[in-house]
Amino acid sequence: MEPGRSVPARSKRARRIAACTALVLSAGMLLAAPASADDLAPATRGTAPRLTPDQGSQPTLVLPKRTAKKPGAAAAPGAEAAAFPAKPRFDVDGDGHNDLMYRSADGEMHVIRNYWNGAFRYTIHRDDYDELAKDIITPGDLDGNGKPEVLTLSAVGKLSLYRSLDAYDTSKSTWSGNGWQKYNKVVAAGDLSGDGRGDLLARTPSGDIYAYESTGEVDSAPFKAGVKVGYGWDAYDQIVAVNDSNSDGIGDIFARTPAGDLYFYAGTGDITKPFKARWKTGYRFDVFNQLVGVDDVDGDGLGDVIARKQNGDISIYRSTGYGSLTTPVSAGTGWSKASLLVGAGGNPDFGKHEIEARTNAGYLWGYESRNNGQFFPRATGNESGEPSGGGNTGSRGLASSLDNDGLPDQTLLYQGQLFTGPHFIGLGWDVYDSLTGPGDLSGDGKGDLLARDRKGDVYLYQGNGLGSKFATRLKVGYGWDTYNVIVGAGDLSGDGLSDVVARDTKGDLYLYRGTGKASAPFKARVKIGTGYNIYKLFAAPGDFNGDGKADLVGVDGKGDVYRYTSTGTGKVDKRVKIGYGWDIYNGIF
Fold this sequence. Notes:
Number of strands: 41
Distance between the termini: 30 Å
Largest sheet: 4 strands, antiparallel
Helix content: under 10%
Strand content: 25-35%
Structural class: mainly beta
Radius of gyration: 24 Å
């Protein structure tokens, strides 16, 4: 299990709500009366409340029969005999084959060994036991001792290196470096320089890519300074490193556009110019919410790809050795349980994967994402199974994580006092009629708040990364009094930066794309829809279908629930009905 997740996510979140409620009680706030039987009736697919969503059995993985390793693919475009044949990037048991690692929704890490049945837990001995890594990267054996290294990337841009001790855990971190939040994607690219060690690729939101060459050190400076090696890679929503896909020992890349076109980049062995010209090698790959580089799964020495559908089914695409992939083969089910697939090509997301719903009597229920476009049955986190009360007093919200645990934080504004989770922030906040916690708007990786006053002026409050304090406000907009809904939880546009969506009184929906700059956190608004005034309730649950991009949820006057999935291009797909019976709620956030 990854340290920092020693208690279930739901129960930990419940304690934060309880702490917030206790603070309000100390200020003289009275809770609402007990809910009626109607208020507590199951909603949507409601069953008895549970402390944590039932994860059920582990996902299944069925690999193709191993074949003989292919010789150097001299006929492949540009392929030559490998000076250093590619080694698996994550071989924890030393059998010469890559293993698959993922994180479940409760924050625990699991490894499925190549051709072994079942999964086992893998512990990363993190320095901060409360911190949830935004991404986990496996570059391979960097120091030549036969065991793979593991990198964790925090939300605030701290990249840390861990050495594998055995098949089950790592040492404490041996190196850390800061500033990596400037990238929206960091990739274990395989050996780009031809020296036999794994290197990194990192992409900025504007599409520039940088290569970081491994030094062979693991205790200090494991990578040389980054070198810009390309641009225009913002055209891709998935960057999938497959290690070596053409038998030359050099790292290769598959990259997908939001429209589903797949391109192949063959490595050159020159890290200053790491790739040859791309060529299109497939299409219609947009039916998958994640593509995962898993190295060689069938024993032929060529890097392969696992593709996951929204329903959790996976398929394996085997490499041909010539920059293309074979016809897919079904390989397992239940993979929506994986909240993070190590080696996945999409941008990692952080901070919110749920909403809270409030009954007319003021009782609060939580709905966590199944990672497939649906919610788990509602739950509370209280040991009694009863919902939290007092939700109708004061103004409530659910912000994307304001600290480093990756869990959303409840906000409460009562008689001018602002509380975030268990923290009392201060007085005078009654000048605002809207508070939104969309994630990091300033580019430092820390969760922020966006506040609108009654004149329509908008202010940014930069968080301290602990959820306990905010910097002096910055005015970042005006004229927002035309909106009756302002929501946001992560990246809707596909560039890895947090965005905000606003609905005006006519029902038109506007996207404000994030810039990552505190002084001007938004680009000019773009209209992305009309007719959204049919919804009495509207919220942003964060990534709802496992592709790393933020989605939207609306509840109409009948209580029917609809999902709007992000396309990754600044637009949303057609709505999909995912529930009913939510007319018992007067607020969702």
